[in-house]
Amino acid sequence: xxxxxxxxxxxxxxxxxxxxxxxxxxxxxxxxxxxxxxxxxxxxxxxxxxxxxxxxxxxxxxxxxxxxxxxxxxxxxxxxxxxxxxxxxxxxxxxxxxxxxxxxxxxxxxxxxxxxxxxxxxxxxxxxxxxxxxxxxxxxxxxxxxxxxxxxxxxxxxxxxxxxxxxxxxxxxxxxxxxxxxxxxxxxxxxxxxxxxxxxxxxxxxxxxxxxxxxxxxxxxxxxxxxxxxxxxxxxxxxxxxxxxxxxxxxxxxxxxxxxxxxxxxxxxxxxxxxxxxxxxxxxxxxxxxxxxxxxxxxxxxxxxxxxxxxxxxxxxxxxxxxxxxxxxxxxxxxxxxxxxxxxxxxxxxxxxxxxxxxxxxxxxxxxxxxxxxxxxxxxxxxxxxxxxxxxxxxxxxxxxxxxxxxxxxxxxxxxxxxxxxxxxxxxxxxxxxxxxxxxxxxxxxxxxxxxxxxxxxxxxxxxxxxxxxxxxxxxxxxxxxxxxxxxxxxxxxxxxxxxxxxxxxxxxxx
Amino acid sequence: xxxxxxxxxxxxxxxxxxxxxxxxxxxxxxxxxxxxxxxxxxxxxxxxxxxxxxxxxxxxxxxxxxxxxxxxxxxxxxxxxxxxxxxxxxxxxxxxxxxxxxxxxxxxxxxxxxxxxxxxxxxxxxxxxxxxxxxxxxxxxxxxxxxxxxxxxxxxxxxxxxxxxxxxxxxxxxxxxxxxxxxxxxxxxxxxxxxxxxxxxxxxxxxxxxxxxxxxxxxxxxxxxxxxxxxxxxxxxxxxxxxxxxxxxxxxxxxxxxxxxxxxxxxxxxxxxxxxxxxxxxxxxxxxxxxxxxxxxxxxxxxxxxxxxxxxxxxxxxxxxxxxxxxxxxxxxxxxxxxxxxxxxxxxxxxxxxxxxxxxxxxxxxxxxxxxxxxxxxxxxxxxxxxxxxxxxxxxxxxxxxxxxxxxxxxxxxxxxxxxxxxxxxxxxxxxxxxxxxxxxxxxxxxxxxxxxxxxxxxxxxxxxxxxxxxxxxxx
Lengths: 511, 476
Fold this sequence. Notes:
The complex is a heterodimer. Chain A is mainly alpha-helical. Chain A contains 22 helices and 2 strands. In chain A, 74% of the residues lie in helices and 3% in strands. In chain A, helix 9 (216-233) packs parallel to helix 12 (279-305), helix 13 (310-331) crosses helix 17 (410-425) and helix 14 crosses helix 22 (497-508). Chain B has one domain.
């Protein structure tokens, strides 16, 4: 494999630079429309390159592919190193796809004068988030991990709802506190790597850090340090409190990206750092994490039922669904019989993450569509919308059912795999996890019923207009994605076959 | 010691002569030729900088009875001091007109202060060190009171003077004790003494405290916020940037040359001072509404990080604290310059509220301030992150992970007040009275350099290796 073009770097930096250029050119009034198209074109181009990478990707290999290595800070052992494997590629694709949807739908959500900076921030954010997934150097990962906070902070603060300043501060301080423990953990691993005889840029390479021999005590400390960073992102109960605020106050596009991508960085971090680096500690604390996940699933599911704010409801639903992801990841430590079942847990967690990206993104877009028309998120302000917006009602129904985990939609596949895995570990886990199926139906469909059905009682509802063409396009794309993943998940499973198997071998092989 | 060696002191000699000349020119020609002292000072600093980098050589040389060291470290630091001074002069040209400074005096005093700092970077014995310290602090007292504005300049100057004198007293007493124990002022003579008698220990601690006081480390930090707040912005900029580098230089000299062998005796002290500074500086900054006071407390926090770096330096090397100090100086320079951009006739940007809604009126200015704030907060990809990163790396390598976590927690707390400035600029509506940005309060050259200065914080964050290499050269 001899690739001349640094494709991964292009995928990261093309949107970032285009975003920067759009900000610079915002003042030029004449270019306004052109810049808007430029953003879309850049986004499509990125997706095309990404598709090419997917096309050329060998799913049965676990090694990093399309790897790039450049000198960056050789004196400190830091390298600009990129690569993709079966975990990062689907998530990177998800990032680009969801950003495209946000860009398509943005003109209906944001005031015309803000549209270009809005586009620019999303392009920059997309590049940085893709960087998180592509980085194979721990510090490069950390740099992207933190850097993507800056555009998100500004995005929520500038275009958020009434309580946006509080929400954005809570969000950024929470994640900063989390990531500082990650930084110290990485520095400690680096220190261990130096003592183990590694030199130069190897000392921060994620691959090196995964192969260090650590004492049990060290592993335990490192586990909690790294877990905290990723748990805040996922978010796990009890460090989830930033999420309802941030998701609720963010503009529609921000909520979509937060739910679809930012949360996945937490899960991805667990798969990339936590499991391979400190497997013993993961095994030792698996029960704790599983219990936390179950609390998230049951307790947060209950909390979701009583919400009167649609966005808040979906935000809580996200926490509950991400509880499934952590459950799937950590349930594998309690299966003793067959390792191929363990692989199922990882696969399930990955599919659940991708699918949740589509579904929660779709639901937030639905709320955005309603919000852009009536400027309220309160469930009680709606009722009978299906009468005036039939097309919208159909799409909303599909996303709602996918959120519930209807077979045939992507929501089913991941949850099913995770339920299977957890059953091998303990039937009790399955019992509690399955409660989400009931609670999920309750809160999702109750919301749907109260918003969409019933007679039109309010004048504002009677005058609603159905979806515009941009909104239709976004919803159709999303629907295709949800259905394909639900009916035929095999390509995605094949894509991460090698990576997933290798991770299981790495983690459980030591037992 | 011969004639050839004195040529090595050319930067200092030239600077001293030119500072006197500026003073004289100011007395006789200032009223006839406007800006002549300004131009002369710019020229002086520029040429001094070139001379300073000219002393860069592969070998270390000592002059005047080994009391004055010329090595890569001093050459590079002097060069950086000159760059900073040049920037300050360029930034404050119009400002000192608006605030009705006495031109000649301001420039001459600044030049003398610069001379003192350059002496400090090269000091190789306690006497030279004391001389340099006094030479750099005394003119600063005078610059604070030189401009009469509505603020509390007199309080600031007197506080600075008294605390500075206290520091000088501590230093002198420490030096005398060390002299009593070793019979020499020479740094290297002290390092020869193996067993530390009590008298020498006491002397060492007093000298360390004197240095910590000049640094503004907790618990000797009380003067810093008052001085920052009470001084005119141009003077705050002067006090807030260059002295940090000079004090770091002398800390490096004293601790590595004189007390390098007995590091165990002082590492704990510095570590505690550093942690206290990080904690108290960052917490106190949250409560500030005056932006200069806030930056003063933030300085204390940053000084804490530098001290933490110094505390582990005997094992890990002085690269990290040097890098931090240089980066900090440039970040603070950008911050004060941007505050200065909001100044107008009869209006001095003092409060964080003055930045309200700045994004509407001056998006570029707001963006530059945003970069500076994120850089100070240490968020990647801005350069402030790598400064913290290096320090933390050294701490963890020294087995101080707990201290690293503690320091980082308070650094994150510190993020809050930097972000508050961003919040005020971006998320709030402009206040009733218009911003002064439209007023020409900075020359075109000054504005361009502020622009470069702030953008460099981002650019260097993308390629931090540049400054790291320079710092590495300093220790070669």
